[in-house]
Write a structure and sequence with these properties.
202 residues; transcription; transcription regulation; mainly alpha; DNA-binding; 64% helix; TetR/AcrR family transcriptional regulator; Arc Repressor Mutant, subunit A; Tetracycline Repressor, domain 2; HTH_TetR
């Protein structure tokens, strides 16, 4: 076994992410991460005192992937870049993604991401007192949509269920041709556009 150097925290989090991606969050433990990195479990405790701290670090690791290199110039481009990055992250790490809804992050990357959203909303003309609420509205939609996709609620398989349900209900009968989206990418884009109009009506 080898000793960890002070710069090895990213390696620990990468190992934790790989284990969770491969085997699910229930397989993630200090021992499993130590084995993946090639050290004793005790060597990890200088970095993370327990599994909760490891999970918090993992959330920060995920949020680091969401900070765009080039967020764009307009407030719409900046909010859109964050939204599409969140959806992409869910697809790349479907077993780990739910952590973003379960744990609050105060890591530098997490704070930077929220600050980018705050600034975009300020630039959109949202009153200062309303910015945090509107950011929560938007992030809740994006996280919920992405989670619905990776959990199967929004999927091609769910289209058949949506098509069959409520066939004897009047509103379902009237909307029968519109209940099963053909393109979830297009629906996500349309939903974002609707949110942008709510944020600042044209």
């Amino acid at each position: 076994m080898r000793k960890l150097k002070t710069s090895r925290q990213p390696e620990i989090l990468d190992a934790a992410l790989a284990i969770a991606d491969e085997r699910g969050l229930e397989a993630l433990s200090m021992r499993a991460v130590a084995e993946r990195v090639g050290v004793t479990p005790m060597a990890l405790y200088g970095y993370f005192r327990n599994k909760d701290e490891l999970l918090d670090g993992l959330v920060g690791r995920l949020l680091g992937e969401l900070v765009p290199d080039d967020p764009g110039q307009t407030w719409q481009e900046r909010l859109g870049a964050i939204a599409w990055a969140i959806r992409r992250l869910a697809r790349e790490h479907p077993t780990v993604f739910p952590l973003l809804l379960l744990r609050t992050s105060v890591t530098p990357d997490g704070v930077k991401l929220v600050d980018l959203a705050y600034q975009a909303l300020l630039d959109a003309g949202v009153p200062e007192a309303d910015v945090p609420r509107v950011e929560r509205l938007m992030s809740t939609f994006v996280l919920g949509f992405a989670l619905s996709e990776v959990s199967g609620r929004f999927s091609h398989a769910s289209r058949e269920i949506r098509h069959r349900r409520g066939t004897d209900m009047p509103a379902h009968q009237r909307l029968a041709g519109h209940l099963t989206p053909d393109d979830w990418d297009a629906e996500f884009a349309d939903d974002l556009a609707d949110l942008m109009r709510i944020i600042r009506p044209v």
